[in-house]
Amino acid sequence: MSDGSGEPAGETPPEAGGGVRIVVEYCKPCGFESAYLELASAVKEEYPDVEIESRLGGTGAFEIEINGQLVFSKLENGGFPYEKDLIEAIRRASNGEPLEKITKSRPPCIIL
Known about the structure:
Strand order of the largest sheet: 2-1-3-4
Function: Increases cell migration by inducing filopodia formation at the leading edge of migrating cells. Plays a role in regulation of apoptosis, possibly through control of CASP3. May be involved in a redox-related process.
Helix content: 25-40%
Oligomer: single chain
Main location: membrane
GO biological process, one term: positive regulation of filopodium assembly
Number of strands: 4
Radius of gyration: 16 Å
Shape: globular
Number of helices: 3
Largest sheet: 4 strands, mixed
Membrane topology: Lipid-anchor
Subunit structure: Interacts with GPX1.
């Protein structure tokens, strides 16, 4: 059955990102809120329908879960994720593809 748009009724196109839920747990005293806001803005620009939520985490934390699965850990990788890698993970999640852990990271900024 169709709703007239050519798409089956009740289904959203995968590019919408609907049904994808992201939780970012970060250390606010560490100054990671700006990294979260930057990442959230990039995600919303690419996938406006994605649900993104922040939680305060422990010292040094910047952990990202997609649909309950940990896909990035600053505690493990020592840096922040590249936006393109997170966007790719969201694309995979919205298409129902298996998620892989993001292992590449950019180093945190160091003020001398």
